[in-house]
Amino acid sequence: MASQVVREWSGIQQFPGATQAKLFELLGKLKQENVESLTILVMGKGGVGKSSTVNSVIGERVVAVSAFQSEASRPVMISRQRAGFTLNIIDTPGLVEGGYVNDRAIDMIKSFLLDKTIDVLLYVDRLDAYRVDNLDRQIIKAITDSFGKAIWKRAAVVLTHAQLSPPDGLSYEEFFSKRSEALLKVVRLGGRIKKQDSVAFSMPVVLVENSGRCNKNESGEKILPNGVSWIPNMVKTIIDVISNGSKGILVDKKLIEGPNPNARHKMWIPVILAFQYFIVKQIRGAIQKDIAREPKAAWELRDMNVSKRKY
Ligand code: GDP
Ligand code: MG
């Protein structure tokens, strides 16, 4: 890895001047904060637009896009360098197969990530989907079980197909907020994130439109129906996530092979039970000794004599 020559991020030049200027400003901000590289992990179901989003951000067609789910079966990392900064984006196969979470895909992603640090997770889904279900929750659970709850502090939800006209007379903002609230709820449930956990609770949701028919503003920048130029906006959100005070997730052997990172404390349960048993035994012994030492009451002695007489 280290010896590999990283290609220049020349795709930036494909963007209109206004987008380039915003991106360079953001890269300058990263340089000021001494951030020399970022590794972004892209995950989600198949066909939601993961690969298209990677291509959009890099500004080149670097990974295959398919309308028919014949996705890449392995994760790939695309690395690009610009002004001393290296961007690594990891595109992954879809996490669902035949209606279930694809454990093989998850294991493959985990081993691919060995010794890498995930700076940001982009959890991708479509804006133009109308429901979330138990499968979504299972996917979130599988990600949480693999990388630990803390991954959600380093995450953003990405909603593709963002150029849409909402149904039922809803405004764009209303539709967006309903859809993102539903997804964030599923992330909180599947990730077992408590309401008090404000960082993960306020996970950002970014909108993306990968289609070539995406609207443009007068400067030629790709914009969303709400007028936002989405590429710089997504990069800005990613930078906000890494600046929120949380740590990146180092995927080491322990994380891959060890117990579920959320269940590590459960290893202490037998020790705690043994300790409790020991304490209870001690207390019980002390009480019995105390009782034996106590002078017997007259009625007790009488009862003892009665029972002696009987037998
Ligand atoms: P992946 O399986 O998650 O990697 O999804 P792909 O990037 O391969 O995209 C699946 C299909 O959706 C392709 O036909 C893409 O052209 C299309 N697609 C992806 N993102 C968008 C988007 O934002 N808008 C529209 N209209 N189509 C998209
Ligand atoms: Mg793909």
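^ magnesium ion complex. The longest strand covers residues 37-44. Residues 46-52, 65-67, 71, 94, 160-161, 208-211 surround guanosine-5'-diphosphate (ligand 1) (CB under 6 Å).
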